[in-house]
Structures are given as C-alpha cells and as structure tokens.
Amino acid sequence: MKGLSESLFNQKLRFKNENGEYFPDWRLGKLGQVFTFKVTNSYSRDKLNYHEGYVKNIHYGDIHTKYGTLLNLQNESTPYINSDVNISKIEEENYCKIGDLIVADASEDLKDVGKSIEVVNLNGQKVLAGLHTILARPLHNIFSIGFCGYLFKSEKIRQQIQKEAQGSKVLSISTTRLSNVLLEIPALEEQTKIALSLSVLSDKIDTEKNILKKYKRQRVYLLKKLFI
Questions:
Q1: How many C-alpha atoms does 104 have within 13 Å on its Cβ side?
Q2: Which SS3 state, helix, strand or coil, does residue 84 take?
Q3: Can you name the residues that pair with 121 across neighbouring β-strands?
Q4: At 226, phi and psi to the nearest 5?
Q5: b/e per residue, 144-160, with b = 16+ CB within 10 A?
Q6: Phi, psi of 186 (to 5 degrees)
Q7: Would you list the domain boundaries of the chain?
Q8: 27-40 mean pLDDT
C-alpha cells in the first residue's frame, strides 16, 4: 500500500486519459489557498455517548486510534453528543460535509501530529468535528472525493506537517501553520483514478486482515478443544 501510494504521489507512476495520453502536469498550491477552515467544538469524552443522540462528534483520539483514511459513517461506530449539551448556536456551515478533511491538531508523538481523515459518507447523519481537531473544507471543484484522504497520508505532506508542528511534550499544529503546507494537485480525473486505486487496494488489505483474524480465532478454538 505504502509503495503504491508513494509512487503515485511522487509521480513515478502516472495515469493516462482515454486517449492514452498523460494527464496535465500537477499544479502547486498552498493548503491555505484551496481550503477554508470551519469552527470545531471542544466537547470532552464525558459529553459523548454511543447510545442515543441527534448529532455525532469526531473526537481527535478516534482519529489517532480508530478511523482509517476515509471516514464512512455507514461502517463506523461514532459517538453522539449528549442530549443535554446545548449545540443550538453552532452554525450550519460548521457541520461536516462530504470531502471535508478533519485533522487531529495535537499528539504526543511527532509521527501522529496532524493525522487526518477525509469524510466520504455521512450516512445521513449530522456530524461535528470535536476536541483538538481542525475542520478543513476544500474549495469547490478542486479535489475529487477520497483523494485528499490519501494525499495527506503521503510522505511529502506528512513531513511538511511535522516541520510545521510546535511544542515539546505535546505537539500541535495551528490552522496558520497548516496553511503553509504545499500541495501538488493533479487534474480531477487523475485524482479520481488515484483515489480509486488506493481505495480498492486498502479494501483488499482489510479483507485479508479480517480473514487472518478469523483463522486465528478458529485456531485458538480448535487448540482449546484438543486439550479438553
């Protein structure tokens, strides 16, 4: 997965259009030129639950430990904001939309600072970005859905984010410093092909991992039976 991803984002491997020609050269742009930042909340874990509610909330800890590259709420267990929390003053534009990037702005480890996920399916839910997150929304018609999730996992982007991070014991990154990150942006059609190829490979890897886990459980069960 990492090998294919780096080959694509380093442009060692390029896709061609239906005429067999390479897509146009990738253009450069700073993150702050192609994204806007929306307001997030600071609700702690004790303000969240997994049983009932009307609005879900993305906690930075789940970005670090739980979610994959692309956030599909049809397949993820995501907590609700408790019903006694007043969220009436939150403006509609600050709710997550398809294509949004949610960035964890704090980490104890350099390798995880600025770790991000892209929202690809809200499953009809209302969702907010929560504690220690940055909600970055791409400008219209700049990115294909799913592309940014993988782009922000690439070494080129990760290294820039790590350089922009500040702090000693706990590292953090601000919207100002995140805006400095330089992006290489391919044509939309090439973005779609990149996102699709990486998504298909990721799904296959996940399937194989699940099969392996199943075999391991069966092995443990059979070994127990042998010694009863």
A1: 27
A2: coil
A3: 72
A4: -65, -30
A5: bbbbbbbbbbbeebbeb
A6: -80, 175
A7: 26-186
A8: 98
Output Rg (C-alpha) for the chain, integer angstroms.
20
H or E segment to which residue 57 belongs: strand 55-58
Question: Class assignment of domain 26-186?
Answer: alpha beta
Which pTM value belongs to this model? 0.87
Task: Report the 3 state secondary structure along 4-52.
Answer: HHHHHHCCCCCCECCCCCECCCCEEEEHHHHEEEECCCCCCHHHEECCC
- pLDDT of 172 reads 96
Q: How far apart are CA 8 and CA 186, in angstroms?
A: 11
State whether residue 188 is helix, strand or coil.
helix
Residues 48, 53, 56, 57: what is their CA dihedral angle, to the nearest 10 degrees? Answer: -20
- The predicted-structure confidence for 193-219, as pLDDT tens digits, reads as follows 999 999 888 777 667 767 877 777 777
Amino acid found at 162: Q
pLDDT tens digits for 124-171? 999 999 999 999 999 999 999 999 999 999 999 999 999 999 998 899
8 A C-beta contact, residue 156 and residue 62 = no
Distance of CA 111 to the CA centre of its chain: 15
Nearest CA to 151 out of 35, 38, 51, 60 is that of: 35
Q: What is the pLDDT of residues 90-119, one digit of tens each?
A: 999 999 999 999 999 999 999 999 999 999
Place of tokens 């990149």: 194
Sign for the pseudo-dihedral over CA of 170, 50, 63, 134: negative
The answer to which of 3-7, 48-52, 61-65 has the lowest mean pLDDT is 3-7
